[in-house]
């Protein structure tokens, strides 16, 4: 972009499923609960069976709108980023959110690009505001509501999957929580790594007797992909972190700053070891990451980074002028967004 839109976050709103104790619940999902408990997560959020993504997104949106004093008629764009299955096929879920909020004749955009969509989705907001100078307020929502029929929330990755939504109102001319840059790229080779093998046009229905409780998990998929070759697997894991640092460096270059200017890092809600692997090359200490918050939330998909950023602001853990990098991976898409407090 030749010019940058001058925009920032004016308010936050969150919605969470019911708090569940990981140690007490792990046996309901896996046969080896100790493995899950050893990840270190204390709590995860599970939405009631009747509460789905649009309801979570609506609740978070209303809280963000109320906090900023924004009425829905003032919104110029509604963006919904979802990291799990939509409620219905052949439906625009962003339009469903707009309808739930009582919005009419407003632009909507639906992003379904995995766990990093809450990070790189901010680029599409900035691009829209840059291309349309009349656009002054945008509602951006990131939601994750696990379909337990399709996925075992404790057997996909080394984190407990949680149900939550984070909503922000983004306004033109904001000097705080200001967007500086977003960078992203895709390495598509392993895009099938964590796919669900049914529910699409290739295999509409699951095999007879299939259950997410007993189906192979993400670790089995990784072993199958790399053929139990430890060297290839190790290179794959190392490259994931190297590419995160690479995409952060690219975002810094776009913003005209360097690594030394970064004060905080917010990654996916992962283990402290994993988060530190990203933060250490940047010179960011673990206490200036989301490592502590992650253990009480679990992995909330696309909502991780915005929840952590908003809660760190609420707790006074961020100071005016701090530059925070939000970063994430959506299978094979790496992304980073820089925000200045």
Automatic annotation (TrEMBL):
It comes from the Bacteria. InterPro entries: ACP_syn_III_C, ACP_syn_III_N, Thiolase-like. Gene3D superfamilies: 3.40.47.10. Residues 112-185 form the Beta-ketoacyl-[acyl-carrier-protein] synthase III N-terminal domain. Residues 252-330 form the Beta-ketoacyl-[acyl-carrier-protein] synthase III C-terminal domain. One of its GO terms (biological process) is fatty acid biosynthetic process. GO terms for molecular function: 3-oxoacyl-[acyl-carrier-protein] synthase activity. Keywords: Acyltransferase, Transferase. This is 3-oxoacyl-[acyl-carrier-protein] synthase-3. It comes from Actinopolyspora saharensis. The lineage of its organism: Bacteria, Bacillati, Actinomycetota, Actinomycetes, Actinopolysporales.
